[in-house]
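Hey,

Quick one before I head out. I ran the complex with 2-acetamido-2-deoxy-beta-D-glucopyranose overnight. Inputs first:
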Amino acid sequence: MVSTSVINICLIAITLLANGINADSEFVMRELQVDMEESNSEVITVKKEIDIEIKDTKETKYEPNWASIDSRPLPSWYDEAKFGIFIHWGVFSVPSYVSEWFWNYWQGNSPHPDVVKFMEQNYPPGFTYADFAKDFTTEFYHPDDWAELFKESGAKYVVLTSKHHEGFTNWPSEVSWNWNSMDVGPHRDLVGELATAIRSKTSIKFGLYHSMFEWFNPLYLEDSSSNFTTRNYVTQKTLPELFEIVNTYKPEIVWSDGAVGPVEYWNSTGFLAWLYNESPVKDTVVTNDRWGNGCACHHGGYYTCQDRYNPGKVQNHKWENCMTIDRKSWGYRRDAKLEDFLTIEDILSTFASTISCGGNMLMNIGPTKDGIIAPIFQERLKQMGSWLKVNGEAVYSSTPWRAQNDSLSEGIWYTAKKGAVYAFVLNWPTDNLLKLGEPVSMGTESKVTMLGWANALAWSVSGKEIHISFPDATVSELPCQWAWVVKLQNFK
Ligand SMILES: *[C@@H]1O[C@H](CO)[C@@H](O)[C@H](O)[C@H]1NC(C)=O
Ligand SMILES: *[C@@H]1O[C@H](CO)[C@@H](O)[C@H](O)[C@H]1NC(C)=O
Ligand SMILES: *[C@@H]1O[C@H](CO)[C@@H](O)[C@H](O)[C@H]1NC(C)=O
């Protein structure tokens, strides 16, 4: 009895050691509940899984250089989460025309004729971008409802724009005088209210997007015209903001963007060393890779590389596909057409290909200036949630399998978990017969099921192919309406 329990724990320890936990590690066993059952014939079963937290007794001090910053292991919650929601919200949600780059398209270096004309036709001469802020009213912003919707979507984290390139802070920043959500517009702490709602209503992780640069900030423009030899903008604006949002809202993700300028200018490694060594979220926080020129896809936490990054191959570093339901914009657009929005089939195809290659998907919605999440976004989120209720087993905490997509049939992506292989089947197979070229049966113990479907599926081996009979069912009997997941046990 006792000896079996010890053996089990030893096996776990060996596994952890094999996974690179060093000898200084201390095993803190939380809720160590190994319920043993002994029958007359001495058959013993371990009934509950053991929840172990590993704590490094030797505290790592990160140095402000990439070699050190990049050596930090990514907190495991992030890879397990797979699916997050991105929210682009700001003063750009007031004109809500073309995209969140509206101001830049109006008055930046290469104006968009559409936007210039829109301003000429609809606003008086002398109207400034700042004049939009008073109409950022947010009167229908009910963060508790947002939190409920996000929970229903099955997402495990959210990332809200605390400040986009326009510079308007969605929290009452000390360093954004009269250009923040408390002084003008909402007269509310949009960031703080969402943080509170998410944390009190859900177990979703709360993250913040933050733009390092601002298109029109005079200090930034001065620094950049001095070829970044002066750093007034960084010391008076960017870094104080980053410290503020981390200390005040304790985000589990700091999603940096718009870091146009050298890393030394931004002092990104200095900030990250503080974040990892001393900040209130030092053990759990996750960051991305947009910390200065040349960083994307090379340095920081997980890699985002570029927007909608989806390499179609396994990467040797954790990555995220940030994408948006509205193909043309991250911010809300009043004039978006139905066909501009991804369908749930499009989204599940992107999701399956992303997670099978080791990525997470961060899917964006753009709320309106009044604080409404438009029904089209609600529908997509709820569709994701209904699908994940059935198929979450193949998603959360899964890992890439040896093959990412099938070699024979198109539109099949794989994940693996606890010895099982999961095939995401994006299109219902012709004649109900799915042919797979990758899985190999390991004998009579092999079993094929569909998640959410009670009966095992009939299958056979045909040369190097596995043939699987899909349920002969009506649409309403099916466990879900899109992207069915086949679970293969005892296949390799
Ligand atoms: C600007 O600074 C970079 C180094 O950060 C240097 O390589 C480049 O030559 C400088 N450009 C000018 C015009 O001084
Ligand atoms: C960079 O950031 C670190 C941590 O906040 C700080 O100690 C250091 O003085 C900063 N260096 C510069 C050049 O700003
Ligand atoms: C598998 O995915 C790769 C990369 O996306 C693609 O080039 C290839 O055609 C796919 N194979 C099949 C059979 O669809």
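Residues 58 and 429 are 54 Å apart (CA to CA).

Talk tomorrow,
K.
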